[in-house]
Design goal:
Largest sheet: none
Strand content: under 5%
Shape: rod-shaped
Radius of gyration: 34 Å
Helix content: over 70%
Oligomer: single chain
Number of strands: 0
């Protein structure tokens, strides 16, 4: 059972790595969402400008199509990153569950070891008491 602390440390490290990866994926998704929102705001500004300047409306169609295409691309990437986040959440859950199993096993082993040592100590105390009692009875005390 002495290998359990090592397994616990390894499992904690793996869990830390997975959590860091999760943080990076969340950051990535947030950047994609921010970029998508920025494109939407840019499109809205261009719509406003096109309505204010009728001569610019000829350029607006190409610009609008390009923005929509970029947003579609971003939306696809957001979906992919979200799926990775979901899969990683499952991995984290499994790793955490495994860690808990090791920790519970270690705690049980420690408790059993404590009981075993207490039993040995009690046996030794009983033996000492029995010797003292025997020695007194035999007149050695």
């Amino acid at each position: 059972m002495q290998g359990l602390p090592t397994l616990i440390r390894l499992q904690q490290r793996e869990l830390d790595v997975l959590r860091r990866r999760m943080g990076l994926l969340h950051e990535r998704r947030q950047k994609l969402l921010d970029r998508s929102q920025a494109l939407l705001e840019e499109l809205n500004n261009e719509v406003r400008l096109a309505s204010e300047m009728p001569g610019m409306s000829g350029f607006f169609g190409d610009f609008s199509g390009h923005i929509k295409q970029q947003r579609l691309s971003l939306d696809k990437e957001i979906v992919l990153v979200s799926r990775k986040i979901d899969r990683l959440a499952d991995e984290i859950s499994e790793a955490y569950s495994e860690l808990k199993k090791f920790e519970i096993a270690w705690e049980r082993w420690l408790e059993e070891e404590k009981k075993r040592l207490e039993k040995i100590e009690q046996q030794q105390m009983d033996e000492i008491a029995a010797r003292k009692h025997r020695n007194r009875r035999e007149g050695y005390a």
